[in-house]
C-alpha cells in the first residue's frame, strides 16, 4: 500500500466542507467528543481557522460553504483576511450554496436549524449576503440540495438570473440530496440557457453506504462537469468507532475505516473533488493520508457489501439528531 503516483494526484482532489464547523449543532456522530461543550461563536471560529490552516497545509484548495451553515462564510472570510498568501493564491477555489436559510439562532436545541427556499427572491437575497462576506473569492455558487420536487430546474426567470451570474464569470452548480440524486443530476445536465449548459458543477452524496448516484456522476464528468463528492464518510457513520460491521471489513484490508472510505471516493475516476467534513486538524491529516494510499481494486471494493437501499439510507440520515 505504498504511496504511488496516484497518491499526490488524489491529494489535490481533497476538499474541505464547513457544514460541521459553521454552526454549533450538526448531524455528525462524534461532535461531543471532537468539539466539546464550548460551541460559542469564538470557539467555532477558532476551530474553523485551525482546520482550514491544516487543510491548506495538506494541499486542500477547494473550500465549500453555504448560507445555511450558520457563520461558515463569515469564518471563511475572516480566515482569508488573515491569510493574504492564501487569499491571493490562484489555486484557491471558494464555493458556496444558496437555497437553505440558517434559522438555528446559534442554539443547540433549536426546533429547526435550516429552511429550504429555492425561489428567485431567495437566490437574489442570499447571493448578496454571500458576496458581502466572500466578495470576489466566490468562484462556484451552487443551488443547495436540489430534489426532484424542487422547482429550480424548471423556473425560467431563476435560470436566467443564474445565467446572468455565469456571464459575469461565476461558475454555477447545484448539490443534490435524497434517494433520487441520479435523476436530478441527469435533469440538470439537460438545462441550457442561451444554448449553453448552465450547471457546470454538481455536488452529490456518494459513499459505500449510498453509492447509487455513481453512474449519473460518471455521465456528468464525461460531459465536462466538475463532480464534487460530499458525505464520503456518511456523516461519520464510516468513521472509526461508529459501525462494527464496517470496521471489520476495513480491518480485513488493514486500513482504518475513515481512510478506506475516503480513498474509495477519491478512487472514483469521475470524482473531481472529495470533500472532507473534518472538524479537527487530526481528521484533516487522516484524510490527506488516505489520499496517499494506493489501494488495489479489491481493497477499494471491501466496503461494497455495506451498500443500503437509498430510501433506507436517506430516512436514517433525516432521523439523525442535531448535536
Ligand atoms: N446538501 C448538501 O449540499 C450537503 C450536505 C451535506 C454535506 N455537504 C458538504 O459535504 C461536506 C462533508 O459532509 P459531512 O461533514 O456532512 O459528512 P462526512 O464528510 O461524511 O463526515 C464528516 C464527519 O465524519 C467524522 N470524521 C471522523 N474521521 C474523519 C476524518 N478522518 N475526516 C473527516 N471526517 C471525519 C467527523 O465527525 P465527528 O465529529 O462525528 O467525528 C466529521 O464531521 C460538508 O462539510 C459540506 O461541505 C453538502
The computed structural class is alpha/beta
Task: Count structural domains.
Answer: 1
Instruction: Give a list of the ligands.
Output: NADP nicotinamide-adenine-dinucleotide phosphate
Instruction: Note the main sheet.
Output: 8 strands, parallel, barrel
Would you tell me which CATH topology applies? TIM Barrel
C-alpha geometry: globular
Distance between the termini: 37 Å
Q: Compute the CA-based radius of gyration.
A: 19 Å
The second-level CATH architecture is Alpha-Beta Barrel
Number of strand segments = 12
Helix content: 40-55%
Report the top-level CATH class. Answer: Alpha Beta
CATH superfamily: NADP-dependent oxidoreductase domain
Low-confidence stretches: 1-5
H and E string: HEHHEHHEEEHEHEHEEEHEHHEHHH
Which whole number gives the mean pLDDT? 95
Separate helix tally: 14
Instruction: Name the strands of the widest sheet in spatial order.
Output: 1-2-3-6-7-10-11-12
**Strand proportion:** 15-25%
Walk me through what this model shows.
This protein is an alpha/beta fold and 323 residues long. The chain has a single domain, classed as Alpha-Beta Barrel (TIM Barrel), CATH 3.20.20.100. It is built from 14 helices and twelve strands. It has helices at 5-11, 31-35, 41-57, 72-81, 84-87, 120-134, 156-167, 181-189, 214-222, 244-253, 257-266, 281-292, 297-300, 310-318, and strands at 14-17, 62-64, 93-98, 100-102, 114-116, 138-146, 171-176, 192-193, 196-197, 201-205, 226-230, 273-276. The strands form three sheets. It has an eight-stranded parallel barrel with strand order 1-2-3-6-7-10-11-12, surrounded by six helices. A two-stranded antiparallel sheet has the order 4-5. α7 links the parallel β6 (138-146) and β7 (171-176). It is globular, with a radius of gyration of 19 Å. Residues 17-20, 28-31, 34, 64, 97, 144-145, 175, 177, 203, 230-236, 239, 258, 275-279, 283, 286-287 line the site of NADP nicotinamide-adenine-dinucleotide phosphate.
